[in-house]
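Q: Hi! First time asking for a complex rather than a single chain. Here are the components, and I think there are two in total. Is that enough to go on?
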Amino acid sequence: MHGRPRRPDKPEDAAAAEAKAAKLRDLQTQVLRNHHSHTYSKEALGLSFKLLELNPEAYTAWNYRKLAFQHNLGELSELEAIKSSIDDELRVVELALRQNPKSYGAWYHRKWLLNQKLAPVDFKREFGLLDKLLKVDARNFHGWNYRRFLAKFMGVPEEEELKYTMDKISDNFSNYSAWHNRSILLSNLLTQQKKGFESKQKIFSEEFELVTQALFTDPSDQSGWFYHLWLLAQTSSPENPQLIALWPSNGAKLSLSSVREANDKQNTPFSFSSICCYSLKEGILPIVLFFNEPVKGLTPSSVSLNSDLVVGKDIQWRPLSVTNSGHSNCWVTYLEVSNLEYCSSQQFSVEISIPNTDDIVSRSGSIYNCPVNFTFTFEPNNIDSITKDTDLIHDPISWDCSEPLPSHVKPSCIHFDQLKITNALIQEESKWHLERLSDELDLFRELPDDNSKFAKLTLARLLLACAAIKSRGSSLIERRGYCEEALGLFNDLICLDPSHKRYYEDERSLVLMDQLTCNMESFMKYCSVQVLPNLAPLNHVQLCRLSLTRIGFVERLLWVQMLDLSHNNLRSIEGYTFPYAVTLYVYFKHLVKQGL
Amino acid sequence: MVRRLSLRSPRTLRARRPPQRGPPPLPPPPTAPMDSPSQPQQPLPPPAEGGPAEDSEAAELPQLTVTQVEQMKVEAKVADIYRVLFGAAPHTKSLMLELWRDQHIEYLTGGLKHLGPSFHVLDANRPWLCYWMVHSLALLDETLDEDVEDYIVDFLSRCQDKDGGYGGGPRQLPHLATTYAAVNTLVTIGSERALSSINRDNLYKFMLQMKDTSGAFRMHEGGEIDVRACYTAISVASLVNILDGALAKGVGNYIRRCQTYEGGISGEPYAEAHGGYTFCGLAAMILLNEVDKLDLPSLTGWVAFRQGVECGFQGRTNKLVDGCYSFWQGAAVALIQKLITVVDEQLKSSYSSKRPPGDGACATSSSTEAMYYAKFGFDFIKKSNQIGPLFHNVALQQYILLCAQVLEGGLRDKPGKNRDHYHSCYCLSGLSVSQYSAMVDSDACPLPQHVLGPYSNLLEPIHPLYNVVLDKYHTAYEFFSSE
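A: Yes, that's all I need. Here is the structure of the assembled complex.
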């Protein structure tokens, strides 16, 4: 299908072309006849040889030669005869590749032949052939595929192959095929912990040096930038899934209030609310766990929940926004609290812990390995006491324990950085990642502004990678600086490269959401508490008129009860099945209806 | 272990002074390709000559790699063409942007009537020739003479193997790619005679035989296994309504293994991401209803960035632009426009975290045993485009109309290359995709601003999963679902 018709460059003499075509058709007819009559004589084989030399696309002829080879092999006993028979096949392939170096049939025939394992393979001949072909077309992917096949087949150490990619890159650093193969080889070597490849940090530092050198030699070449992107992905992502947010947060003290709806005095379902609690008709308290990548395997045994409250027999963790495979970023369970006595001022505590467990796994199969333990307490309250002595309407919520709390607000907190991951290994890794990325940042900031979109995009991605690492540490505020700079870059890119405007707009929206929500000072401007008739006060977040095209960082909005996203440029609301619909649905549905 | 790149002008890394090579040769495409004038072209630097290792010391400016020189040559050619356009009077502009329908029709029908002798290399690919021409003519809304249609149906029947599937010619081994070409041709012809000439029972048996234990398909008996084989098998099976759990099993997991870290899909595991295979892999996954196994955000990013300053698409990272990728890449983006819900779902993981593609253990195939597979393709086309185009669809039309059209009819890879039927087919298919991609409904008439040049340039809409004209698809769908 991707085989292009190779028309002669100049219209040949029509008669000669016609003669050639007639000869070819004649050959083809004879070969097909031999194929159907199972004629495998030397003469018949010779004809197929001629046909394939002229037209390597004749795949039936390749198949015929395989059958003939196997048939004739039965009659050969001497190794020399077998060798010569193999040699014939190798030669057809070589001649065919001379005619069309991208012939699927020819390359496959050679692989098939080697896989028969009838005679030792001539190492030099195979790699010599490849060298020749890759010299003519360094990007011939058939050639690179064959090289990977051959290296594996012959047991060539991957270290050797890595050297070969270096040679090819030295010949022409625009050769992306070589960079690509390098990424494959390095991944394998690092996974297998081969000698010299034990330290990911050392290897990636060297690779960064190498690719940066290529990029500085010529920033306008694409290949290095894409390899850089691969390195960045390897450097900026944690190996194992991580819990990045939860609600209610650790140490939170919730006060649950019941609200009586005026029009239904008899059988009023309780509604709970306070600064940080949910307004739920059913009288249930959701507990939400949010991971940085989709995971599965949350069960009562992998996540334990203890409470002095009588908890229903089985606590079931349910995935929100589930994929076919059952993985989800967001897991929730619901505590029944409807039958509590609300007059008492008793405190209930809930303790949740995730021990070291093999059960929770990401899509790639890496296991969750940061044991955590968190507790929150809640106390039933009477709605009257709240509404009387507080004026919540204009008071923003508070979400950080370290911030001074307004006196009238119950000491509840929303941490974005709700978990301190204390695992030493991860911290050390993050530290290295951050140092590495900071070095890269310093370097790329020095690239003169020649309006290279690759340079700007890479710089933006580096900044975001740094920002992401910062979020795993405790310095959310530093994140703002990175975001600020990245925003500027995406704004530049939108002007510089309008073809990809939408992509940049989406990226910019994510950064903007990150920036707005990453610390209290900035987020405060968008938050308020709303009191609606007959309802407990609700946490209200307005992210309006921000030119957002996409929503992100929903893990920081776990506590939001009303979300106003009006007057943005959201392209579709369809995708945003907000996992927290339990808390947001009233207003959110309303927004959907308005059709944003 | 890491060696310095010794062959370029040596610059110590610590000095960190990148070379001053002047601005890049071409400005990025303007938002509306017609609005802003192109900047004067930088003179081409001399190509790298001789052994680069020897004279690198002397070079003040870094030498360009062969790849870069080739790229600049193409950019210069394309820039010349666009410069003429920007400088032209409105009337001339409109003429320049015209699709030369008559010439293309003449070239294509001429090709159908007698295949010239120089096409001999395609003797193992004759159903492909039929498809490229018949489909191109259908895109141009040109009906074939009945006797030509009959001739093609008869010819393809002779290519049909007695045990199922179509070969590259009569008596040749049945082959999945030529089967795809043959079936798409017959669907495009669309007559009762054409559609009923397909022996579906045998076709099904042939496909089962081509299935490898891994779940992937091989091209033909004793042939290679790759993503192309998987797509052609799944597309045909879905189109003629023989796709079932037995054929579908394991294909998705194989294709998933071919997605690279760049986001695109390669022909086989560990190979490089490639435009043709990316389309094939993505379309097959949609037809299998397993598209969530792919990492769609990174796939989207990869495809979108294959559109270059020339306004057309390249097939792989750092390769030259080629008109045929107007379809392979352009249609992949068009498919994603209908998958935004799935993309968003996947994007909910924090954007900086690595997102390995879907879960291998997932048993989608077995749970969907009873599914009506042909419905996936049918329902998909009814989905609205959930967002606007993810690539510059008007710029792509500009590349096709100005750089790929050949005055005598037919379309080509890039300026300086010869026309051929393969490129004619995929340039026109890409043109159709880019004309309709700004519309919410896939078959609604595009607004004039989305059709570059005169509105008469508008082609017939296609079903992007199969690349057959939409009307023809619907006829075939009805035919095969009633059988």
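A: The longest strand of chain A covers residues 284-296. Let me know if you'd like any chain examined more closely.
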